[in-house]
Design goal:
With 195 residues, this protein is mostly beta strands. It contains one helix and 14 strands; from the N terminus they run E-H-E-E-E-E-E-E-E-E-E-E-E-E-E. It has two domains: 80 residues, RNA polymerase Rpb7-like, N-terminal domain (Dna Ligase, domain 1, 2-Layer Sandwich), CATH 3.30.1490.120; 94 residues, OB fold (Dihydrolipoamide Acetyltransferase, E2P) (Beta Barrel), CATH 2.40.50. The strands form three sheets. Strands 1, 2, 3, 4 and 5 form a five-stranded antiparallel β-sheet that branches. A five-stranded mixed β-barrel has the order 6-7-8-13-12. The longest helix has 15 residues. The chain starts with 6 loop residues before the first strand and ends in a 9-residue tail after the last strand.
Amino acid sequence: MQITNMFREMEIRGRVAIPTKSLDRNGVVPQSSVVTGLLKELLLIKSTEEHGYFLAITELKSIGNGEFEDESGDVLFSVAFHCRTFLPVNGEIMLGVVHKIHRRGVFLRCGPMKYIYLSAQKMPNFYYAQWKTREIFINDDHSRIENDVVIRFVVFAVRWRKKHWDIERDFMILASLEGDCLGPVSLPGSDELEL
């Protein structure tokens, strides 16, 4: 297993468009409007293949002079800021919560990542079963994988999707339980682990 750091602190430069209605009486755009515009743009962008998911702006380094854009009527500001990002990488060990179970595998969520698939073929010694009214994966020592269970897994494949069906600007992850200390960490309703 490789040890990497999926959380990164990086400097990013960009441009923020501010509508002219945000100008104050003196024709000046308040700094708070530029910061709000920057946060809204990052929320819309969500993630990029190069940087990963945008989690937080940690420092606003500079805001350039505004330039009026005739076509849109907006004022454009160049900005430089430090941002904390989350970029999934192969070999990283993570925790995810099961949210959907199928005969051939389970879907997990982890932080901003909604598309993590753990195939039944990548769950050694677990087999599919229907228990009461629920679908689960169970192994010989009665460890269960079911909805809302926290699972420790290793990332073995990452794919960036800019646009694919209803998935937009997101990473798709393939997970595995092949390795030491991987598998269910807590049962549903357990308060042993806080995420």
